[in-house]
Amino acid sequence: MSGFIPYRPPPLSPEESLARVEALRDELDQRRSVRHFSPAPVDRAVIAGAIAAASTAPSGAHRQPWRFVAIADPAVKRRIRVAAEAEEKRSYESRMPQEWKDALAPLGTSWQKPYLEIVPWIVVVFAENYQVGPGGERRKNYYVKESVGIACGLFVAALHRAGLATLTHTPSPMKFLGEILDRPPGEQATILFPIGYPAADAEVPDITRKPLEEVAVWFEGE
User: Fold this and answer.
1) In CATH terms, is domain 36-200 a member of 3.40.109.10?
2) Structure pTM?
């Protein structure tokens, strides 16, 4: 990265700005986390496009500290499922307090994750805590957690725009993902996304989102 270039996005009227943001809000409001998937194939180019869209996210010092590892290999998906279920079973049986399990109960979650083998794609997002230069020197990345979080949000939005369904799955601990996928020490698994089309009989919890007045605080002056 060197120098600067002009940035002159075309101005929009207040009406057009509002129409655009409301259209996006309405589209994203239809998104739901899905746990029942179809095995129907998804073209690799669609996954690549969603990753490229996610990679437009802002990042600390423009280091772009994320790696999207896409898996379609059935044998690797099988290994991920077995390891994820082992960790999740331990969590449900001994690690998670009852309050947490009670909070999850309305969503119908459990330690069993059969969708990890049903979906055509799994994408695991790794946070890159540092980069390694050509001479083996480490170069620290900045605001890694925040940068990766924004990229993951854009990834979810891109998948929804593509007509695909996903779920933010975070088995804990996630060290096994780095081992299975042979990632370097500087990378840490953050979120696992199973990706595909919803099953023909898929159902999702009947939920509502907080209204604007509960999530926004305004300081507008006079």
Assistant:
1) yes
2) 0.93
